[in-house]
Amino acid sequence: MAELSAESGVPVATIKYYLREGLLPPGERTSPNQARYGKEHIQRLKLVRALLDVGGLSVAKVRDVLDGIDQHDDLHQVLGVTQHGLALRQIQVDESNTESAMARLEQVAAERGWTLKADNPVVEATVNTLGAFIELGRTELVDRLSEYAKLADQMAELDLDTVYALDDPQTIVEAAVVGTVLGDTLFAALRRLAQERASAARFRS
Question: Which stretches within the chain are classed as H helix?
Fold first, then answer.
């Protein structure tokens, strides 16, 4: 275990916790106090750390993702469980505004071929965010939501193209978590850089 810790960079105490929680399979027992761990354990540790530390998933949700991988569930389903576990800012808005927001989102989802499920936290976060725009009287983005959704579809295709070539489900899920969480921050920064350029071109006298 000391070698596994040194190779993975994960402290021994953390590895023992993952073993107790069933997030890491036990090693091959070689003596009463020793076990042999292989590359598959290092790979699993990377995935668990990505899900817990980067993605912010609960231990229970991480277990669901790992069970899906180990049972060879459909990769779309595994990624869905993972995505639903990723933290999203939830904004509280008046119910009347969320009703208007939901109607607008349903319209755009129909245009894009998206499926909106009632128990999807991403749908809830989207509706609440749109509701906040409406509540603040800033409906410009809501009015152009179809155009933003089209860009989101293009980004999603690019995201999946990036992870599609990876060699196994564990690596794909790890890359998807890191790419989504850090990608959100990266794209927000790129958007601001692009806004700076566009603002200078449009408004600078």
Answer: 2-8, 12-20, 39-49, 59-70, 75-85, 95-112, 121-135, 140-143, 145-164, 169-203
Q: Which tens digit of pLDDT belongs to each residue from 84-106? A: 888 788 888 998 899 999 999 99
In angstroms, the CA 50 to CA 137 distance is 38
For residue 77, the Cα-to-chain-centroid distance in whole angstroms is 13
Closest by Cα among 118, 28, 21 to 67: 21
Task: State pTM to two decimals.
Answer: 0.82
Which pLDDT band holds residue 126 (cuts at 50, 70, 90)?
A: very high
pLDDT digits (tens, 9 = 90+) for 163-182: 888 878 889 999 999 899 88
List Cβ neighbours of 25 (8 Å cut-off, separation of 6 or more): 40, 41, 44
Calculate the alpha carbon distances from 110 to 28, 34, 106, 114, 196 in Å: 52, 57, 6, 6, 33
Residues 6+ apart with CB under 8 A from 120: 84
Distance of CA 107 to the CA centre of its chain: 25
